[in-house]
Amino acid sequence: MAIEKKRPRGLKGSAAQKAAKKTKTEETPESSVPENAQTVVLGKVVEEGDEVGEAAALYESAIEKMENSPSEARALLRGTIHESDRILRNWDATKTMPLEFYFTYGSALFELGRLTEDEEFDPYLEAAEERLEDGLAHYETLENKDDSTAMMNCIKVSLAKVWLSKAASEVDQGSDVIPELAKRALETLEEVVPLASLSNATKVELASIVQNHGDLYTEWDSRTKFTNWAEKLLEEVLADSPSHSKALSEIGLCKLSLANYWLDQVNEDNDDEEEEEEEKSERTEEENKAFEAFGESKKYLEKAHANLKMMEQLEPHHSTDLAEACLNQANLMLEEKERTDLYKQAIEYIREAKEVASKSDQDYELPDALESFLEEWEE
């Protein structure tokens, strides 16, 4: 390959584009509620006849499937909602509905909306918000609130997720104005997350949602209100579990998004001055910040990649995230040899992504910019 090939500029794939979208999942054939749903429930500790507990167990099973088996998670979430509908229709009005019911019902609606890409998200958000707010209203009627405080905090966390998702549609491109709903969501999370007994997996998912919302803003102050909070929560997870692959991956994406932010601040005139770019002996302040952030991103993504590869849980996007970081950092490298070495690393990760997808029979397509770079490299 001729080293003089034009550098790919402004590559922004995973971190920059996911902010304005619902969670992406690999589409696989949809199934109905699995026949072994009752078996799944029985795998949890549920008292006999506890219908609310059974619905909650279905929801917990769905969350466990979210990362690696989204189609199974969708089926279990639909089963959770179906059971919750049935419980609500048949509930004895003289008995008090457990708070767990509202949390389970509302959270399942929210998560199913995020996973169902061929349907509008808004109806799921509205239904989830209604059920969760019903739960808070129910909490206020309880005589003994102390026993239900933990579940109330969980409801508030889920409600904050809904508010952030609804607020996303109110963010104007290029504006630094934070919608009131997003402010309320972040204030709620700041209040209840330290009090809630959240699992590390829940914290990572929550941090990802908050980070994605922050990515919607172009102004530094607005953006960092959310991204700093998300990064801090991820650091708490890593302090407790240093090898947590999902947390390592998410904080790597946080750094990747930050690097892309600084790239956006670089004078766009440089894009058309290739000869001057080749002769540069130093980076601008913004380029230095981007360069450092790409390096930090690689550090975390490489750790996640190594863990996942060892556990045979590597997905194509884990490799393409790293390829993106390598490629963009290479564009900012002043020394030709180091730049070429990073390009070679990017190529290895791109090829690995294609291989992983092929072995798992996934209908996976590389991001256009990575596909173009691979084609140029192989010419």
From TrEMBL:
Belongs to the ETT1 family. It comes from Phycomyces blakesleeanus (strain ATCC 8743b / DSM 1359 / FGSC 10004 / NBRC 33097 / NRRL 1555). This is Uncharacterized protein. Keywords: Nucleus, Transcription, Transcription regulation. InterPro entries: Nro1/ETT1, TPR-like_helical_dom_sf. One of its GO terms (cellular component) is nucleus. Residues 1-10 have a biased composition (Basic residues). It is found in: Nucleus. Residues 280-289 have a biased composition (Basic and acidic residues). Its main location: nucleus. GO terms for biological process: positive regulation of SREBP signaling pathway.
